[in-house]
Amino acid sequence: MSFVQTFFDRLGEHADKPLVREVHGTTLVDSTGRQLADLVARARTGIASHGGAGDRAILLAPNSIRWVATDLALLAEGRIVVPMYARQDPAELVAMMHDCDPSLVVAATEELAEGVRAHWPEAPLVTFEELYAHEPTERAPHAWQADDDVTIIYTSGTSGAPKGVVLSVGNVDYMLPQTASAIGSMMSLGGEVEGDDRVFHYLPFCFAGSRIVLWTCLLRGNGIMVSTDLDNLVQELGTAAPHYFLNVPMLLERIKAGVEKNLREQPAPVRWLVRRATTAWLREHKGRRDQLALRLANRLVFDKVRERIGPNLRCLICGSAPLGSDTQRWFQMLGIPVYQVYGLTETTAIVTMDRPPQVRAGRVGRALDGVEAKLGEGQELLVRGPNIFGRYWQRPDATEDAFVDGWFRTGDQAEIDPDGTWRIVGRVKNLLVPTSGHNVAPEPLEQKLLGAIDGAEQVVVVGHGRPWLGALVYGEGLQEGAVQAGLDQVNAALPHYRRVRRAHRLREPFSIENGLLTANRKLRRKQIELHHASEIDGLYARSAR
User: Fold this and answer.
1) How far apart are CA 80 and CA 481, in angstroms?
2) Could you tell me the domains of the chain?
3) CB count, 10 Å around CB of 268?
4) Confidence (pTM)
5) What is the pLDDT of residue 159?
6) Distance (Å, whole) CA 485 – CA 124
7) Are 242 and 380 in contact (CB under 8 A)?
8) Is the CA virtual torsion 95, 100, 102, 108 positive or negative?
9) Among 93-97, 427-431, 459-463, whose mean pLDDT is lowest?
């Protein structure tokens, strides 16, 4: 029995329980298993008149109850679901749509539909309003087989044109029990949870990791709370009061920066206590005075910070990019463990994950059971196992290039500890080679600078083909002199070729809207360098004068 059939079994088993809950400010809007099943049955009637089993179908919508219902309805009708990001440029979306040749495009709103029609007038479009106006069907769901293609997820395009990653039923059938087991073990460390785990999700469901979170909740029959307004995330988190939620490093860095800014504005005794407790926390061996400082800081400061971040939090889960060890330790100091997950769309979202309580800051855990991982040429991480995708859609050359002797080339430089714990150093394609000839991975430097520069929220290291390394730094609360002080601190422990000599302070952040972040908030490095070419040139021009 495939995961799709299991989902429908869960809807029946939990007919009266809220399985998907939209968070609207301080209000939760629920959809029970019975209500979801009714929505799915209505949508299936409309889907059935557009193509047949095995066809591709686009799902273009922000996260919502109806996003989940539409995904399930398309799967029930045997469609290969191609989820797309609702806030992406319509011209880019249509290019991907043409690439996968869908028989149906489902758009949440007429506004989204019009954006598509502007570039593809003949698109086979249906809006949510039209899709859910039908009478429900009572037909049994499509019978999926393990080797069937079940979804195509387009890569984020950080290093070129997006490619459609084809995942099979077998890939997903392998992954979901892995994630369900991991979530269960993470929750059990904090004691038994009464009722469902409180799961909050704000990242778009169109990405592999987010989809796996959603599907894992459905597999477990556990409810999930869905953000509806990213601009109101703080209030939504307060309403959801989750036990855990999936994050990207940028949000955790932002939380840390905001708390630290607030602490810097506290009276001198509080600032002294926080510094003393932080220093004590970082020591491997803590004396009596260290223990006293930590207990006092916990009672007077850290407990209040932890309550503000999330009173019910058992843990945070972080993926998409490596999280700096300093940030991971900072959350641990507050009593909020952060568990890292590493993977790509091509690996059905996950290759490695932390296995609590054996967690090492700055590492991404061990490979999943049944997944093999090793280092190849240039310390590139190679992977094989039941989670590896079959092919890129209509790109046989790219598929061939992605493998070496049957191993998938992740494109990530990695290191492995003696206990089998992995550390991701950076992307192979991101390597900077200054005129000294040394290969420098920018990601570790960026993490160090984020930790050292007070108020920094985003850092990009540049310098490929240049005489030395420079950086672009953004932070709304950056103080005068903070950037140089951070550079001096980091450079003191680095060899000459890895030192960041100069930095330019940016007035605006990298964002999805200005095209400098992908939809899941990864840096688009080539676009950043093009967009800020004059500022980067200015760094080196100042040095030459």
Assistant:
1) 54
2) 3-243 (3.40.50.12780), 247-311+315-428 (3.40.50.12780), 431-544 (3.30.300.30)
3) 7
4) 0.86
5) 56
6) 57
7) no
8) negative
9) 427-431
